[in-house]
Design brief:
Layout (H helix, E strand, L loop, with lengths): L5 H10 L9 H4 L18 H5 L11 H13 L6 H27 L4 E2 L1 H12 L6 H13 L10 H4 L1 H5 L17 H4 L2 H8 L3 H20 L7 H25 L19 H6 L6 H6 L15 H11 L3 E2 L6 H5 L12
Antiparallel strand pairs: 1-2
Helix pairs in contact: 4-13, 5-6, 5-7, 5-13, 6-11, 12-13
Protein backbone atom coordinates (compact mmCIF):
# COMPACT_ATOMS: atom_id res chain seq x y z
CA UNK A 1 0.00 0.00 0.00
CA UNK A 2 1.44 3.37 -0.97
CA UNK A 3 0.74 6.11 1.53
CA UNK A 4 1.03 9.51 -0.12
CA UNK A 5 1.89 12.53 1.99
CA UNK A 6 -0.98 15.05 1.99
CA UNK A 7 1.37 17.86 2.91
CA UNK A 8 3.54 17.27 -0.15
CA UNK A 9 0.54 16.86 -2.44
CA UNK A 10 -0.94 20.11 -1.24
CA UNK A 11 2.33 21.96 -1.76
CA UNK A 12 2.70 20.37 -5.20
CA UNK A 13 -0.63 21.83 -6.27
CA UNK A 14 0.61 25.35 -5.50
CA UNK A 15 3.58 25.15 -7.85
CA UNK A 16 1.53 25.21 -11.03
CA UNK A 17 0.35 28.73 -10.27
CA UNK A 18 2.64 31.66 -11.15
CA UNK A 19 3.87 33.67 -8.19
CA UNK A 20 1.66 36.64 -7.43
CA UNK A 21 2.78 38.59 -4.33
CA UNK A 22 0.03 39.16 -1.84
CA UNK A 23 -1.01 42.79 -1.52
CA UNK A 24 0.07 43.22 2.07
CA UNK A 25 2.75 45.36 3.70
CA UNK A 26 5.15 42.46 4.00
CA UNK A 27 5.65 42.58 0.23
CA UNK A 28 4.89 46.21 -0.56
CA UNK A 29 7.32 47.72 1.96
CA UNK A 30 10.23 49.20 -0.01
CA UNK A 31 13.64 50.51 1.01
CA UNK A 32 15.71 53.03 -0.96
CA UNK A 33 17.92 51.32 -3.53
CA UNK A 34 21.06 52.21 -1.58
CA UNK A 35 19.70 50.17 1.34
CA UNK A 36 18.67 47.25 -0.84
CA UNK A 37 21.42 45.05 0.63
CA UNK A 38 19.36 44.92 3.85
CA UNK A 39 16.44 43.24 2.04
CA UNK A 40 16.92 39.59 1.05
CA UNK A 41 14.17 40.04 -1.57
CA UNK A 42 15.98 42.90 -3.32
CA UNK A 43 17.34 41.89 -6.73
CA UNK A 44 18.06 44.80 -9.11
CA UNK A 45 17.77 42.54 -12.15
CA UNK A 46 14.52 41.00 -10.90
CA UNK A 47 13.70 37.91 -8.88
CA UNK A 48 12.84 35.73 -11.87
CA UNK A 49 16.01 36.68 -13.73
CA UNK A 50 18.13 35.69 -10.72
CA UNK A 51 16.35 32.34 -10.30
CA UNK A 52 17.05 31.58 -13.96
CA UNK A 53 20.79 32.18 -13.66
CA UNK A 54 23.13 29.20 -14.19
CA UNK A 55 23.60 26.97 -11.15
CA UNK A 56 27.14 27.87 -10.18
CA UNK A 57 28.97 29.24 -7.18
CA UNK A 58 29.90 32.93 -6.98
CA UNK A 59 33.09 33.80 -5.12
CA UNK A 60 31.63 36.77 -3.23
CA UNK A 61 28.94 34.57 -1.69
CA UNK A 62 31.62 32.67 0.20
CA UNK A 63 32.48 35.79 2.19
CA UNK A 64 29.79 35.37 4.90
CA UNK A 65 31.03 31.82 5.55
CA UNK A 66 34.66 32.93 5.64
CA UNK A 67 33.64 35.71 8.02
CA UNK A 68 31.80 33.36 10.39
CA UNK A 69 34.47 30.66 10.31
CA UNK A 70 37.26 33.23 10.70
CA UNK A 71 35.86 34.59 13.95
CA UNK A 72 35.10 31.06 15.16
CA UNK A 73 38.75 30.13 14.58
CA UNK A 74 39.85 33.31 16.33
CA UNK A 75 37.89 32.21 19.38
CA UNK A 76 39.98 29.06 19.61
CA UNK A 77 42.97 31.21 20.63
CA UNK A 78 41.10 32.25 23.76
CA UNK A 79 40.31 29.71 26.45
CA UNK A 80 36.58 30.03 27.19
CA UNK A 81 35.18 30.37 30.66
CA UNK A 82 32.95 27.58 31.92
CA UNK A 83 29.98 29.93 31.58
CA UNK A 84 30.75 30.79 27.94
CA UNK A 85 31.29 27.16 26.99
CA UNK A 86 28.08 26.04 28.70
CA UNK A 87 26.09 28.80 27.01
CA UNK A 88 27.57 27.87 23.62
CA UNK A 89 26.37 24.29 24.02
CA UNK A 90 22.95 25.50 25.18
CA UNK A 91 22.59 27.86 22.22
CA UNK A 92 23.57 25.08 19.83
CA UNK A 93 20.70 22.87 20.96
CA UNK A 94 18.31 25.78 21.58
CA UNK A 95 18.69 26.86 17.96
CA UNK A 96 18.92 23.33 16.55
CA UNK A 97 15.50 22.69 18.05
CA UNK A 98 14.19 25.82 16.32
CA UNK A 99 15.47 24.63 12.94
CA UNK A 100 14.15 21.09 13.31
CA UNK A 101 10.83 21.82 15.04
CA UNK A 102 9.90 25.08 13.32
CA UNK A 103 11.75 25.66 10.04
CA UNK A 104 11.56 21.98 9.11
CA UNK A 105 8.59 20.26 10.71
CA UNK A 106 6.29 23.28 10.77
CA UNK A 107 7.12 25.72 7.96
CA UNK A 108 8.39 23.10 5.51
CA UNK A 109 5.96 20.24 6.19
CA UNK A 110 3.18 21.61 8.39
CA UNK A 111 3.19 18.52 10.57
CA UNK A 112 1.25 20.29 13.33
CA UNK A 113 -0.75 23.45 13.92
CA UNK A 114 -0.15 26.48 16.06
CA UNK A 115 -1.40 30.03 16.55
CA UNK A 116 -0.43 33.03 14.44
CA UNK A 117 1.53 34.72 17.26
CA UNK A 118 3.35 31.46 17.98
CA UNK A 119 4.32 30.92 14.35
CA UNK A 120 5.87 34.40 14.27
CA UNK A 121 7.78 33.61 17.46
CA UNK A 122 8.88 30.30 15.92
CA UNK A 123 10.12 32.09 12.79
CA UNK A 124 12.09 34.58 14.90
CA UNK A 125 13.48 31.80 17.08
CA UNK A 126 14.65 29.90 14.02
CA UNK A 127 16.17 33.09 12.62
CA UNK A 128 18.59 33.13 15.56
CA UNK A 129 20.33 30.18 13.89
CA UNK A 130 21.64 32.51 11.13
CA UNK A 131 20.27 30.29 8.35
CA UNK A 132 18.22 32.99 6.63
CA UNK A 133 14.44 33.33 6.94
CA UNK A 134 11.84 30.67 7.61
CA UNK A 135 10.12 31.10 4.24
CA UNK A 136 13.39 30.94 2.28
CA UNK A 137 14.45 27.86 4.23
CA UNK A 138 11.12 26.07 3.86
CA UNK A 139 10.61 26.92 0.21
CA UNK A 140 13.93 25.40 -0.79
CA UNK A 141 13.35 22.40 1.44
CA UNK A 142 10.02 21.68 -0.19
CA UNK A 143 11.75 21.64 -3.57
CA UNK A 144 14.36 19.27 -2.16
CA UNK A 145 11.62 16.78 -1.33
CA UNK A 146 9.96 17.25 -4.68
CA UNK A 147 13.14 16.42 -6.61
CA UNK A 148 15.17 14.50 -4.03
CA UNK A 149 18.42 13.19 -5.57
CA UNK A 150 17.17 14.02 -9.06
CA UNK A 151 17.57 16.97 -11.40
CA UNK A 152 16.11 19.95 -9.57
CA UNK A 153 17.38 18.95 -6.13
CA UNK A 154 19.59 21.89 -5.20
CA UNK A 155 21.68 20.05 -2.59
CA UNK A 156 21.96 16.41 -3.54
CA UNK A 157 25.32 14.74 -2.79
CA UNK A 158 24.37 12.05 -5.30
CA UNK A 159 23.96 14.54 -8.13
CA UNK A 160 26.41 17.28 -7.16
CA UNK A 161 28.89 15.90 -4.61
CA UNK A 162 29.46 16.36 -0.90
CA UNK A 163 30.86 19.92 -0.85
CA UNK A 164 28.05 21.30 -2.99
CA UNK A 165 25.31 19.56 -0.97
CA UNK A 166 26.85 20.63 2.33
CA UNK A 167 27.66 24.26 1.57
CA UNK A 168 28.24 25.13 -2.07
CA UNK A 169 24.58 25.39 -3.09
CA UNK A 170 24.11 28.40 -0.80
CA UNK A 171 26.79 30.30 -2.79
CA UNK A 172 24.84 30.14 -6.06
CA UNK A 173 22.97 33.33 -6.95
CA UNK A 174 20.04 31.36 -8.37
CA UNK A 175 19.34 29.89 -4.93
CA UNK A 176 19.16 33.24 -3.14
CA UNK A 177 15.54 34.24 -3.91
CA UNK A 178 12.78 32.79 -1.76
CA UNK A 179 10.63 30.45 -3.85
CA UNK A 180 7.39 32.07 -2.76
CA UNK A 181 5.44 30.02 -5.28
CA UNK A 182 6.05 26.95 -3.11
CA UNK A 183 5.29 28.63 0.21
CA UNK A 184 2.00 30.41 -0.49
CA UNK A 185 0.43 28.97 2.65
CA UNK A 186 2.74 31.13 4.78
CA UNK A 187 3.60 34.06 2.50
CA UNK A 188 0.07 35.40 3.07
CA UNK A 189 1.20 36.51 6.54
CA UNK A 190 2.91 39.93 6.24
CA UNK A 191 4.82 39.56 9.49
CA UNK A 192 6.44 36.32 8.24
CA UNK A 193 7.36 37.92 4.91
CA UNK A 194 8.86 40.91 6.73
CA UNK A 195 10.97 38.66 8.93
CA UNK A 196 12.00 36.63 5.90
CA UNK A 197 13.07 39.74 3.98
CA UNK A 198 15.00 41.22 6.88
CA UNK A 199 16.47 37.95 8.11
CA UNK A 200 19.47 39.70 9.69
CA UNK A 201 17.33 41.07 12.52
CA UNK A 202 17.25 37.92 14.74
CA UNK A 203 21.05 37.32 14.47
CA UNK A 204 21.68 41.00 15.25
CA UNK A 205 19.40 40.70 18.28
CA UNK A 206 21.33 37.63 19.43
CA UNK A 207 24.75 39.15 18.90
CA UNK A 208 23.91 42.40 20.71
CA UNK A 209 22.15 40.49 23.46
CA UNK A 210 25.19 38.28 24.05
CA UNK A 211 27.52 41.27 24.20
CA UNK A 212 25.22 43.07 26.65
CA UNK A 213 24.95 39.94 28.80
CA UNK A 214 28.72 39.52 28.88
CA UNK A 215 29.23 43.18 29.76
CA UNK A 216 26.67 42.90 32.59
CA UNK A 217 28.21 39.70 33.98
CA UNK A 218 31.74 41.09 33.81
CA UNK A 219 30.61 44.14 35.75
CA UNK A 220 28.41 42.50 38.37
CA UNK A 221 29.59 38.86 38.51
CA UNK A 222 33.34 38.93 37.88
CA UNK A 223 33.72 35.45 39.39
CA UNK A 224 32.25 34.05 36.14
CA UNK A 225 35.35 35.35 34.34
CA UNK A 226 33.46 36.23 31.18
CA UNK A 227 32.94 39.32 29.03
CA UNK A 228 30.93 40.63 26.11
CA UNK A 229 33.67 39.85 23.60
CA UNK A 230 34.03 36.30 24.88
CA UNK A 231 30.33 35.59 24.63
CA UNK A 232 30.17 36.99 21.11
CA UNK A 233 33.15 34.90 19.98
CA UNK A 234 32.15 31.61 21.60
CA UNK A 235 28.38 31.80 21.92
CA UNK A 236 27.66 33.52 18.63
CA UNK A 237 30.42 32.61 16.19
CA UNK A 238 31.59 29.20 17.43
CA UNK A 239 28.11 27.96 18.35
CA UNK A 240 26.67 29.22 15.05
CA UNK A 241 29.36 27.58 12.91
CA UNK A 242 28.99 24.23 14.66
CA UNK A 243 25.21 24.52 14.36
CA UNK A 244 25.48 25.31 10.66
CA UNK A 245 27.50 22.18 9.95
CA UNK A 246 25.19 20.09 12.13
CA UNK A 247 22.17 21.15 10.10
CA UNK A 248 23.98 20.84 6.76
CA UNK A 249 25.08 17.30 7.63
CA UNK A 250 21.49 16.24 6.96
CA UNK A 251 21.67 17.61 3.41
CA UNK A 252 24.97 15.85 2.78
CA UNK A 253 25.86 12.96 5.10
CA UNK A 254 22.32 11.65 5.59
CA UNK A 255 22.20 10.86 1.89
CA UNK A 256 25.56 9.04 2.08
CA UNK A 257 26.01 7.31 5.45
CA UNK A 258 23.51 5.05 7.19
CA UNK A 259 20.88 2.45 6.44
CA UNK A 260 17.56 2.40 4.63
CA UNK A 261 14.46 0.92 6.21
CA UNK A 262 12.18 2.08 3.40
CA UNK A 263 12.74 1.92 -0.32
CA UNK A 264 12.31 5.52 -1.40
CA UNK A 265 13.23 6.96 -4.77
CA UNK A 266 16.33 8.65 -3.31
CA UNK A 267 19.41 7.83 -1.23
CA UNK A 268 18.09 9.05 2.14
CA UNK A 269 19.54 7.14 5.10
CA UNK A 270 18.84 6.65 8.79
CA UNK A 271 21.83 7.54 10.95
CA UNK A 272 21.80 7.29 14.75
CA UNK A 273 24.75 9.66 15.30
CA UNK A 274 23.25 12.36 13.07
CA UNK A 275 19.95 11.93 14.92
CA UNK A 276 21.71 12.69 18.21
CA UNK A 277 23.47 15.85 17.06
CA UNK A 278 20.39 17.17 15.21
CA UNK A 279 17.74 16.26 17.79
CA UNK A 280 16.10 13.62 15.60
CA UNK A 281 16.72 14.74 12.02
CA UNK A 282 19.08 11.84 11.37
CA UNK A 283 16.18 9.42 10.82
CA UNK A 284 16.18 10.77 7.29
CA UNK A 285 15.00 7.69 5.42
CA UNK A 286 11.98 7.54 7.73
CA UNK A 287 11.33 11.20 7.03
CA UNK A 288 11.57 10.80 3.26
CA UNK A 289 9.15 7.90 3.41
CA UNK A 290 6.50 10.05 5.07
CA UNK A 291 7.46 13.75 5.41
CA UNK A 292 4.03 14.64 6.78
CA UNK A 293 4.65 12.94 10.15
CA UNK A 294 5.68 15.11 13.08
CA UNK A 295 8.03 12.43 14.39
CA UNK A 296 11.04 11.24 12.45
CA UNK A 297 12.12 8.53 14.84
CA UNK A 298 9.26 6.23 13.91
CA UNK A 299 10.04 3.62 16.59
CA UNK A 300 10.60 4.01 20.31
CA UNK A 301 14.30 3.19 20.08
CA UNK A 302 14.89 5.91 17.49
CA UNK A 303 15.72 8.91 19.65
CA UNK A 304 13.92 12.04 18.42
CA UNK A 305 14.30 14.85 20.96
CA UNK A 306 12.48 17.35 18.76
CA UNK A 307 9.38 15.16 18.80
CA UNK A 308 9.54 14.76 22.58
CA UNK A 309 9.78 18.52 23.04
CA UNK A 310 6.88 19.10 20.66
CA UNK A 311 4.82 16.75 22.83
CA UNK A 312 5.66 19.06 25.73
CA UNK A 313 4.61 22.05 23.61
CA UNK A 314 1.32 20.27 22.94
CA UNK A 315 0.78 19.68 26.64
CA UNK A 316 1.33 23.41 27.20
CA UNK A 317 -1.22 24.25 24.48
CA UNK A 318 1.33 25.88 22.16
CA UNK A 319 0.84 23.38 19.30
CA UNK A 320 -1.84 20.86 18.40
CA UNK A 321 -2.97 18.37 15.75
CA UNK A 322 0.40 16.63 15.54
CA UNK A 323 0.35 14.40 12.45
CA UNK A 324 1.11 10.74 13.26
CA UNK A 325 2.90 8.12 11.18
CA UNK A 326 0.24 6.09 9.30
CA UNK A 327 -0.08 2.49 10.42
CA UNK A 328 0.51 1.31 6.85
CA UNK A 329 3.98 2.88 6.92
CA UNK A 330 4.85 0.92 10.06
CA UNK A 331 3.88 -2.30 8.30
CA UNK A 332 6.18 -1.76 5.33
CA UNK A 333 9.52 -3.53 4.91
CA UNK A 334 12.44 -2.73 2.68
CA UNK A 335 11.69 -5.64 0.39
CA UNK A 336 8.06 -4.73 -0.17
CA UNK A 337 7.79 -0.98 0.32
CA UNK A 338 6.83 0.87 -2.86
CA UNK A 339 8.94 3.73 -4.14
CA UNK A 340 7.45 7.07 -3.32
CA UNK A 341 5.89 9.04 -6.13
CA UNK A 342 6.86 12.23 -4.29
CA UNK A 343 9.18 12.72 -1.37
Amino acid sequence: MNVADPIDLEVESEVVNPFRPASHWGFTLRLPAWLGFLDSDYFPSGRTAVMNLPVKSRASRWFPFIFLHGFALLALFYKPSAFALSLAVFLYFFRMFAITAFFHRYFSHRTYKTSRPAQFLFAFWGGLAVQRGALWWASHHRNHHRYSDRDGDIHSPVKSGFIWSHLGWITADCNMPTRYETIGDFSRYPELVFLNRFDWLPPLFLGLGLYALGWFLELHFPSLATSGCELVLWDFFVSTVVLFHGVCSINSLSHILGSQRYRTDDSSKNNFLLALITLGEGWHNNHHRFPGAVRQGFFWWEVDMTYYLLLLFRALGLVWDLHPVPSAVYEERLSSAPSRVRS
